[in-house]
Design brief:
alpha+beta, 4-stranded parallel beta sheet
C-alpha cells in the first residue's frame, strides 16, 4: 500500500514540491489505516454529499437570511461563488493532478460516484472556507461557529478518499483568501447593521410624549422566557427589578400565552396604565394587539432572538427601553391588521408572508423544542429548500403562482425580496413583494442576498428578475394550500392557519381569504427621543 500511494503521488503534477507530495502520501496512509465505526464513515460521506454543489452552504445562507442576517449570507455566498469558480474553472486546469487510488480507501468510505475532475485544489474546501470566512467578516461569532463545519467538510474529502491533504489545504486557503479580498473591495457593514443595507443613525418616526413611570408604578410586564432561548444575553429581569422596582413582572407559564396574561391583567379592578412585554417579535405583536385595544402605550423590552421591531423603533436594549419609560419618551407607529375572513384581525408589526418562509417557520416550530431554535432552523431550511413547491394565490383579484409573497409594514429598502425588519414607523403603506415561480435555487438566492449583492447578481443574470413590488394601503389575498404545506400567513415569526373557504362551482378548490390593512399611528411605543435630548 505504501508503494502504491508513493507511486500515485509521483504521478501527480510536478508543479507541487516533492515534500508536499510525500506529505500527501503520508496523510493518506494515516487516514486510511484508521479503523472507524461504519456510522462514522456514513457521517463523513453524508457531510461531503450535503456539501455537493454548495447545498449545505446555501441552506445555511437561507437560515441566516430568514433570521435577519442577509448581509452576512450575501457575503458568504458571494465568496463561495467566487472561490468555487476560481477553483473549478481556473486552478484545477492550471495545477490538475490525479486523485488518490480508490483501491487504497476502505470500501465503506468510498463515495457512490467518485469525482473525475482534476484533484488540486479541492472545490468543496474552497467553497466551505469561502462561505465561512465571508460570514465571519460580517458576523465574527457566527463565522467562528461555522469554521469547524468548514474544516469538517475539508476533512470529509480526505476521509472518503476524494482528495489529498494538499488539495484540501489549498482549497481552504483559496476560499479564505477570496473572502479576504472581497472584504478589501467591499468593506463589511457596521456591527449594528442587519440584513443588506445601511440603517439610519436616527430612529424613524416623530417623537411623542407618553406617560412616564420613573419607578415602574402602574407598569405590567409580561415575560416570555422561551423567546430568546437560542441566543446568549444577559438576563433582563434583574435590570427591570433594579430600575423599575414597582413594576409588576409576570413570567409566562409553559402553557400560557402573552395575550392571556395581558387580558387577565386588564380585567382587574385596577388595571395597569402601561403595558410591557419582554420577548421576541411574536410576543411583542400579541401584546401590541392588546395595548391598541385598551388604548395603552407599550413598553418593548428586547428579549427574543431577533427583536426586529424594537431595533427599528430605537429601543434595541433593555436599558434604552427602561430609560424611555422612566422619562415618558416614545413614538407613534403604524401596524397592519391581518384578518382571515370575518375573524378578529391579528396585529402585525413587521411583515406577513406566504410561501417558502411560512414553510420554514412551520417546520422549525415542529422541531425547535427537541433541537433548539438554531438547529431546528437549519433542519427546516434544508427541508424547505429541497421540497417546497410554489403556491397559488390571488392578489387583489389577480391570480399568480409564486414562491413567496411578502407584505411589509411600511416601505422597506429596494432590491430585497424579504423585508423581515421594517425601516419606517409612520409612512402609512404596505410594501408588497412577490417572487413569481421559477427556479428553486433562484428563489433561495433571492431570499439570501442583500440589496447590493442582489443588484450585482441580477445584472449578471445570476438571480431571477421575476420579483414584483408595489405599495398599497390594503390588499386582499386568497391562498390555495398545497398538500402537507401550511396554507396561512407567517407574521412576525409566527404562523397563522386560516379556516378554508367553502368550495363553489366558480372556485372548486378551497382557498384561504386574507385581508391585510395598514392601521396608521395605531400603537404608542416607548423609545428614547431621537434627537438625544431626553425631556
Amino acid at each position: 500500500m505504501a508503494f502504491r500511494n508513493l507511486r500515485v503521488a509521483v504521478r501527480r503534477t510536478r508543479i507541487l514540491p516533492e515534500w508536499v507530495r510525500r506529505a500527501d502520501a503520508a496523510a493518506a496512509r494515516a487516514v486510511n489505516r484508521r479503523h472507524t465505526h461504519p456510522h462514522v464513515d456514513a457521517f463523513w460521506s453524508r457531510l461531503t454529499g450535503f456539501a455537493d454543489r454548495g447545498v449545505l452552504w446555501w441552506t445555511l445562507a437561507g437560515v441566516l437570511a430568514v433570521t435577519g442576517r442577509r448581509r452576512a449570507a450575501g457575503r458568504g455566498l458571494a465568496s463561495l461563488l467566487a472561490a468555487s469558480g476560481i477553483a473549478n474553472l481556473i486552478a484545477k486546469r492550471v495545477f490538475g493532478g490525479d486523485r488518490p487510488l480508490l483501491a487504497d480507501v476502505p470500501i465503506g468510505r468510498r463515495l457512490p460516484k467518485p469525482p473525475l475532475t482534476p484533484s488540486f485544489p479541492s472545490g468543496h474546501s474552497a467553497s466551505a472556507a469561502g462561505f465561512a470566512a465571508g460570514v465571519a467578516i460580517e458576523r465574527p461569532r457566527i463565522g467562528a461557529a461555522l469554521a469547524p463545519l468548514a474544516i469538517g467538510v475539508g476533512y470529509s474529502r480526505l476521509h472518503t478518499g476524494a482528495h489529498w491533504l494538499s488539495d484540501v489545504v489549498g482549497g481552504l486557503a483559496l476560499g479564505a483568501g477570496v473572502a479576504g479580498l472581497g472584504a478589501l473591495a467591499v468593506p463589511p457593514g457596521h456591527a449594528g447593521q442587519t440584513g443588506g443595507g445601511d440603517r439610519p443613525s436616527r430612529p424613524p418616526g416623530v417623537d411623542r410624549g407618553l406617560p412616564s413611570s420613573p419607578d415602574g408604578e402602574g407598569v405590567f410586564i409580561v415575560v416570555n422566557r422561551s423567546s430568546g432561548t437560542s441566543v446568549v444575553r444577559a438576563d433582563p429581569l434583574p435590570v427591570i427589578a433594579d430600575r423599575l422596582p414597582r413594576a409588576e413582572v409576570h413570567v409566562l407559564d409553559d402553557d400560557e400565552t402573552p395575550r392571556q396574561a395581558v387580558r387577565a391583567a386588564l380585567a382587574r379592578p385596577s388595571p395597569p396604565r402601561i403595558l410591557g412585554v419582554c420577548g421576541g417579535d411574536g410576543s411583542v405583536a400579541a401584546a401590541a394587539h392588546e395595548a391598541i385595544a385598551a388604548g395603552l402605550p407599550l413598553l418593548v423590552v428586547p428579549g427574543g432572538t431577533f427583536n426586529h421591531f424594537a431595533r427599528t423603533a430605537g429601543a434595541a436594549s433593555v436599558d434604552l427601553a427602561i430609560g424611555a419609560v422612566q422619562r415618558g419618551e416614545g413614538v407613534r407607529a403604524d401596524v397592519a391588521e391581518l384578518a382571515f375572513g370575518d375573524d378578529e384581525p391579528i396585529t402585525v408589526l413587521n411583515s406577513a408572508s406566504v410561501g417558502i418562509y411560512p414553510d420554514f417557520v412551520a417546520v422549525r416550530e415542529r422541531h425547535e423544542h427537541r433541537l433548539g431554535k438554531w438547529l431546528a432552523a437549519v433542519a427546516a431550511a434544508a427541508r424547505v429548500l429541497r421540497r417546497s413547491q410554489p403556491v397559488t394565490i390571488v392578489v387583489n383579484g389577480r391570480r399568480a403562482q409564486v414562491w413567496t409573497l411578502f407584505v411589509g409594514v411600511g416601505a422597506s429598502e429596494p432590491g430585497t425580496l424579504a423585508p423581515l425588519q421594517r425601516r419606517r414607523l409612520d409612512d402609512g403603506v404596505l410594501d408588497v413583494r412577490l417572487l413569481h415561480a421559477g427556479s428553486r435555487t433562484g428563489a433561495a438566492a433571492s431570499l439570501a442576498f442583500g440589496r447590493r449583492v442582489s443588484a450585482v447578481f441580477r445584472a449578471l443574470r445570476l438571480l431571477p428578475r421575476r420579483v414584483e413590488v408595489f405599495r398599497a394601503e390594503s390588499i386582499e389575498v386568497v391562498v390555495w394550500p398545497r398538500e402537507g404545506q401550511p396554507p396561512g400567513f407567517a407574521h412576525d415569526g409566527e404562523v397563522a392557519i386560516a379556516a378554508p373557504l367553502e368550495a363553489t362551482s366558480a372556485a372548486p378548490r378551497r382557498g384561504y381569504r386574507t385581508r391585510i390593512t395598514i392601521a396608521r399611528g395605531a400603537l404608542d411605543v416607548y423609545r428614547p427621543a431621537s434627537d438625544g435630548t431626553h425631556r
